[in-house]
From TrEMBL:
Lineage: Bacteria, Pseudomonadati, Pseudomonadota, Alphaproteobacteria, Caulobacterales
Protein name: Alpha/beta fold hydrolase
Natural source organism: Brevundimonas pondensis
Alphabetized UniProt keyword annotations: Hydrolase
Domain AB hydrolase-1: 27-147
Pfam families: Abhydrolase_1
């Protein structure tokens, strides 16, 4: 992890948040972790990712170097805290949002609520609203046993984002339509074992991801063939390529907008 950029801290509405920032030439890339994942989980993308632009990564409340949440972490709360933190870090929109797993819900909501602040999205094995509402009843016995064990060993915070996932899904349903922006959805090609996820759940999950990629007319589905749920670790080159492609596309679009008539 020696290539990770320096760590900083900021206090946003009484909440201490840790973040890392590396300046580059290009759009501001905002890395949004999965649930419980610290920002160091992006380490395999560094230092190459800085070639695509300025890179910002942070720990949401209760994760890594950030203090526990001081209020219920619904999607709306997460998005507004992130926007305040980006402002405190001196980073102006529009942003290229790069989100993994549960962070995909937050990126999805960010884009719907503040489309003028989002230039594009790269969603890596993202959670979809339909995953939250339909997949849990299809969990295998092994999944349920593991979840019960984890909850005993590390009880979830009642203010945490997972505890409020259904409210986040409701907020997404009430938000504006997804904007017409570049969108890349990266899907791991290695299916989990049947004991890890039932076949019918795997089929539904793939359908949800395909539908997510179609939310924007500029959307695409990218297969990371050698990866499971963490392509940013198992296939960083594929993730970097998707980010670089969108960043270059955004740079071209900006040049066209600035060219005199």
């Amino acid at each position: 992890m020696k290539h990770l950029p320096p760590r900083h801290e900021a206090v946003i509405k009484g909440q201490k948040l840790a973040y890392r920032l590396a300046h580059g030439d290009g759009p501001t890339l905002v890395l949004i972790n999965g649930a419980g994942g610290p920002m160091e989980g992006w380490f395999r993308l560094f230092p190459d990712i800085t070639q695509a632009g300025t890179v910002f990564a942070y720990d949401r409340p209760g994760v890594g170097g950030s203090s526990p949440p001081v209020s219920p972490q619904t999607g709306v709360q997460v998005v507004e805290t992130l926007r305040d933190l980006l402002k405190a870090a001196g980073l102006a929109p529009p942003y290229l949002l790069v989100a993994h797993s549960f962070g995909g819900l937050h990126a999805n909501l960010f884009a719907r609520q503040h489309p003028e602040e989002v230039a594009g999205l790269v969603l890596i094995e993202p959670t979809t609203p339909e995953d939250v509402t339909t997949l849990k009843p299809l969990q295998s016995g092994a999944q349920r046993w593991v979840n019960r064990l984890l909850n005993r060993l590390s009880p979830s915070n009642p203010d945490g984002e997972v505890a409020h996932e259904l409210e986040t899904v409701r907020q997404l349903a009430a938000a504006a339509p997804f904007p017409d922006v570049p969108l890349a959805v990266i899907v791991g090609g290695k299916a989990p074992k049947d004991w890890q996820a039932r076949p019918e759940a795997q089929t539904l999950r793939r359908q949800h991801l395909e539908a997510l990629s179609r939310l924007s007319p500029q959307g695409s589905l990218i297969l990371a063939a050698r990866s499971g749920h963490f392509p940013q670790i198992s296939e960083p080159a594929a993730v970097l390529e998707a980010i670089a492609t969108l960043a270059a596309r955004l740079a071209t679009n900006r040049s066209g907008e600035q060219r005199p008539a």
